[in-house]
Amino acid sequence: MKKAYIETYGCQMNVNDTEVIFAILAKAGYERTEQMEEANLVMANTCSVRDNAEQRIWGRIEVFNQARKKKPDMLVGIVGCMAERLKDKLLDTRKVDLVVGPDAYRSLPRLLEAIRPDKPQIDVLLSREETYADITPVRTDKNGISAFISIMRGCNNVCSYCVVPYTRGAERSRDPHSIVREACDVFQRGYKEVTLLGQNVDSYLWKSETETVTFADLLARVASIDPALRVRFATSHPKDISDEVIETMAAHDNICRHIHLPVQSGSSRMLALMRRKYDREWYLERVAKIRSVMPDCGLTTDVIAGFCSETEEDHRETLSLMEEVGFDWAFMFAYSDRPGTLANRTMQDDVPADVKNRRLNEIIALQNRKSLERYRAQIGKTVTVLVEGPSKRNPEELCGRASNNMMCVFPAPGLKPGDYAQVLITDCTSATLIGKMA
Ligand code: SAH
Ligand code: SF4
Ligand code: F3S
Q1: What are phi and psi of 47, to 5 degrees?
Q2: Ligand 2: residues whose CB is within 6 Å?
Q3: Which of 105, 153, 167, 171 to mutate to test the pocket of ligand 3 (most atoms within 8 A of CB)?
Q4: Superfamily in which the 146-375 domain is placed by CATH
Q5: pLDDT score at 141
Q6: Assigned architecture for domain 382-437
């Protein structure tokens, strides 16, 4: 048996794809290893979303080639979004044998066969159909409690800053029967939580001659598998999250009370330039709707600081929106100009780096304060936590998530991963709830 080692960068979809890749590689006679030095095949599953993500990979290619010096038959490959974006530029470096895009993983066995020292192989064709629906991911996730299931691939939006539509291709939804089958299968194998994944899950749509399945329908089907199976999903798009989805969540106790709803900016002028297809008022109305139906729903977001032409006034609107909504948590980024995107072709990346960073720091400082407020508001409540494993800080204690996605640590002798616990929250930091068994 040959051995394959894969490093994964970027989003959860890449983590999932790495499992798909291992399943395909198994057919080609490769088993997984965690040790790069002993691998016959070393790969990075890469991300292109920001420039620093790509810079990191160039460094890793150097490291892989150092390891190859000690093991000359080692093959080096780049897969994922950066493979798609840079295509033969990666081969030109002569430091990789294999370049495979996100829709071409089925051709890995054939490509691996064809590699010769002077003949690197590339397949970066994007597909309108590929969803890997029939490939059972290897499930190398550590805890054995929560599984991720891809329900769609690609993206049909053209947010002007974003490279994803170019690296992942057009949006396509996976057959709901194969999704439900996979969820049933992981539940039978002891998993207690599934997270349904897509760039914009709200636009999930599957049609056959006999049925039309929306995201709300799919959520209801997965939630009906068993009340002891928790259901999560990401990412929601503010322009597409429907009342039907919000009401379906409310109707099922086992659909977790958490929505990741990236706002990107609080300024309607910026949102229009970003081509997000909603404005500040629309976003705030969606938040109000969610909170009116599920007052306890956790809300998290993504924010970009310093997009093209952003003024201090635009920036203050982002801060005031964050103040008003009070997100539990946020991913916050400085805008990174990506070659080939609409913004790159038609706008000026004209906010100086120091201004971008200062605005980003203000956004981060505000969010830290808000997170602490949101976590503090949980003190005194009793929440249901799904135990994931020992706490990282203190192995005597357990950790797991509340329905609203907040991480919680608490002492619970006798409980094990996969158990549900009623936990009384007694204290917190800005990222962790601290509690005891209720
Ligand atoms: N599909 C999701 C997000 C995918 S990318 C959505 O529509 O929200 C994850 C996050 O990366 C985005 O939400 C955005 O905040 C950030 N991002 C994407 N492109 C970026 C860029 N060029 N510069 C900085 N951040 C970016
Ligand atoms: Fe990118 Fe927009 Fe698609 Fe999200 S919805 S992946 S930000 S283009
Ligand atoms: Fe990155 Fe590709 Fe995901 S660009 S964020 S790995 S879809």
Answers
A1: -125, 145
A2: 155, 157, 159, 162, 164-165, 199-200, 237
A3: 167
A4: tm_1862 like domain (3.80.30.20)
A5: 61
A6: Beta Barrel (2.40)
229-253 pLDDT, tens per residue? 999 999 999 999 999 999 999 999 9
Pick the residue whose CA is nearest to atom 2 on ligand 2: 159
CATH topology of domain 2-123: Rossmann fold (3.40.50)
Q: Could you tell me the distance, in angstroms and rounded to a whole number, from the CA of residue 161 to the centre of ligand 2?
A: 9
Report the pLDDT averaged over residues 31-49.
Answer: 97
SS3 295: coil
Rounded to the nearest angstrom, the gap between the alpha carbon of residue 422 and the centroid of all alpha carbons in its chain is 28
Listed in order, the ranges of the chain carrying CATH 3.80.30.20 are 146-375
Which are the contacts of 103, defined by CB distance < 8 A and separation ≥ 6? 125, 126, 127, 130, 153, 169
Comma-separated ranges of CATH 3.40.50.12160 domains in the chain: 2-123
- How far is it, in rounded angstroms, from Cα 197 to Cα 261? 14
pLDDT at residue 140, as a whole number? 63
* Cα within 13 Å of Cα(208), Cβ side: 7
Q: Looking at the chain, which residues constitute the CATH 2.40.50.140 domain(s)?
A: 382-437
Inter-residue contact 13 to 152 (CB < 8 Å):
no
